Structures
1.
Amino acid sequence: MIGWRTRLGFLVPPGNPTVEPEMTAMTPHGVSVHYARMSASGITGSLQGQEERNLEQIASLDQCVSLLAMVQPKVIVLAHTATSYTLGVSGERDLVARMEATHGCRFITAFGSVIAALAHLGVSRVALGTPYAMSNTLRGKALLEQHGLSVPNHVSLPGATNIYDETPERAYQLGRMADHPEAQAVFISGVGMPTLDAIEAMECDLGKPVISAASAMMWHALRTAGVRATVPGAGRLLRT
């Protein structure tokens, strides 16, 4: 049996049913993916109590990273976009630096992956859609702007109460709602929302790149690990 050449590690929120199948679907030959679950209480995926769960997950990171580092991944990914909304720019930068210094492994975040992906695509104006409450959507908008991006439109998915109950059809609806004529690309936040099956259709209909937190994470993790493979069916980002 041929051994795995590259290992990727993902830190996943408790209860998230989406990350593992979507990452597996995007994993190229010769790469293996490994997971550790962060700790949080309350109703996972619920819009209520999200900030409190984010803080609990941040507090559990050291132990989770220590466990995941045992498989010696090339890179570890914090697979939760809204954690960056809680941390802010400086808090995220400090967290990444501390994790890399403590555990001796490259450490990236879902939101940081989005910023890198938009830069790679040459995007300076991005529309934002989230399955979060508007208060958290506004945090995401502000964070994009702090990274120098213009956000001509931002929307929260109507009727969303739990991210993990959403569907690719609703992700497609969210992308169409978020799009704006001035936007060069559309970003769908929320790792817990299944987006992979909707990205290609959105790009075809909108005529512009569509990235999700999931597609950006896999793209950035592969590039950080030195893997240049393309991933069919996951949008323009993973074909470049």
2.
Amino acid sequence: MTRYEDTITFPEMSLGTRRELKVRRYGQRGARPKAYLQTGLHADEIPGMLVLHHLIGLLNDADDAGLIHGEIVLVPVANPIGLSQHIYGTLLGRFEVGSGNNFNRNYADLSDVVAERVADKLGDDADANTAAIRAELTRAANALKFTNDIEFLRISLLQLAIDTDLCLDLHCDWEAVLHVYLGTPCWPDGADLSAQLGSRATLLATKSGGHPFDEAIAGPWWALAERFPDRPISPACLAATVELRGSTDVGDEMAAADADNLYRMLVRRGYIDGDPGPLPAPLCDATPLTGVETIKADRAGVVAYCRHPGDVVQAGDTVAIVVDPLESDAARARHDVISQVSGILYARRGDRMARPGQTLCRVAGATPLADRMGRNLLSD
């Protein structure tokens, strides 16, 4: 067997407290290829924790049979800070309550420092360039300093994943179908991931805004290729944020199926010996993240949805009705919410009370929208 567990202990930021990250490893440390999977970075997004529980069982069996190549690293609970934030009985795991910082934003961008260090090392051999860049990414990540526990968390996760070939950050949305966020340079290489997982919307962007975890891991490769166009630099890391449907889509049968798909992906990519079976037919084409319409309420009221996650809508369709329960005229109380684009409604808000400007749902269109260009493409 080649599996073992590491523990990363947080520095004591509050008297009498102790936090830990548990890291499960398979294969040989430093071997290639290397895959990294984490979940629970937004600590109140639970589906991925059950999925990795099932994946660990599959990997244990593969390890017992001597089937694992390279290195596979799992962080089944990536945010012990967020898991401690229970306010009046509700787990609040998306933002750090002391600062208001989103746990999946503001990761270090290592592109500039690595570019300076590799400028004189890059040549005409793509594999040698990959090795040189990967070594400097590791060196730069290991040199990062922290001043508080959220920075320690970000740096620790970055150090675990910065040298990977495959990086999957498992999340979920409010109410949603399974969808995937990928860097544009990772397409079409990531088409097998989208198809294997059964993604219903695969959304591409080079800079989505806020510098989330997956872009911190894969983004330096794209930036360096742009910085040194005369040198062969491959997008050597496929990093993706995988949204495992909605927050209440937690169950053994569904999680086991998702774990099976992740396992087949690892087999298909050469981390595990075996037959992954035929690649499933894709359920969607990749579309630009700039083509997503974020449909917002223009008034307060009760939300009655007309369309569900996974529905294909056309521009002009009513996707929801906002009802003012204080209006005595029943007809005047109802206000249609209209989609301006054609595409798949892939996510909608879980609560049913709207306020002006509040996001209600998202529709993935195929054409970039003018009002989305040059803006932060992710909600905070």
3.
Amino acid sequence: MKIETAKHSGFCFGVKRAIQIANETAQNNKKTITLGPIIHNPQMVEFLRKKGIHSIDDINDISDETIIIRSHGITAENYKLLLEKDLNIVDATCPFVKKAQEFAQKLTRDGYQLYILGEKNHPEVEALLSYIDDSAVVVTNPDNPFPKPTKGKVALIAQTTQSEEKFERLAKKLISLCEELHVVKTICNATILRQESTRNLAQKVDIMIVIGGKNSANTTRLAEIASAEGCRTFHIETGDELKIAWFENVDNVGITAGASTPNWIINSVKEKIKKINETK
């Protein structure tokens, strides 16, 4: 049984940067926390917890700790509350997420009705909306009905981990509904590369194993892409979820991983698949 890993998989630049910032901060501060998980990978969050970096969901539980702003960013309201608490704030927001926030603010200031392709309850989108007073229209699926523009000038951006194909479909629909459409592709390049390499690999193998947090939007999208190619696909977080039955009559196994998935988890899954092959 041949095992092939997608060319682009695992940690992206923004996640590597956030983890590095967290480790360096913990070395220099006794109390270090993140407001919400720093990345969407439960195993990595637990690994950091053992190193003294704790995740807290309620801002009211924060007192005198050093606070790390997670890679997805936080809302403007929460940032203001942190400043009022006079905390030591370390910002690990992904630069691409910050860029999307800047575009959202500029476009709304310039009088555009803003549309965002994304998930309204995802922390990145929640933060985006907070910087423009929740004035944007969030579209999760361009194939479903969504509110039509009330202005002639419309702008479109995306959650950084969205599907490029869905983004293009939404742009085509919007252009027929307004006088002017300003499109800014805020999907980061790492996301596009992971999606492309997953799609290419899914076309060649019998089964795809997608590794990453069940709470990870970009990992979930990789699983959707592989499945859409007609490849039998399983989304797992660790090798413990693998089942021997999945690999019966399988000659080629493809592996891909979300942008928040560390190499040590990817490698452990590979080893587990090799052991399953030895028992066949």
